[in-house]
Model the fold of this input.
Amino acid sequence: MSLRFAGYAAIFDRPDRGGDVIRVGAFKRALESLGGQGRDVPLLWQHQRGRVIGRIETLEEDARGLRVIATLDDAKLAAALESGALGGLSFGYRVRDGRPGKRSLRELIDLDLVEVSLVTIPMQPLARVHAVAG
Done:
């Protein structure tokens, strides 16, 4: 069972649970180096390197954050996503440029994008799947 979904793996200018704030443009260089589409970025389950669960169709920055469109190939996870029992998104990264922000926050300015993950509890509560199509 394959299931196509869209959502946001990152949200700009909103602190996450770890005190990081991703700034607009943080993925620009990484996406350009990936040819603009992000299809070479793996889709993982809970950031587990050995657990590829589908494929990324498109990754792009928009005014809200890092938008992802992907196809999920894992039947059990697809059923959980379709039922609404699962819906968090996240991403793995390396910081190329960051700086201390206000109130103990860290501002992330330039990031290497390593992976996108479907997760049960995202570090950024607003990073969610927002559309599912069978």
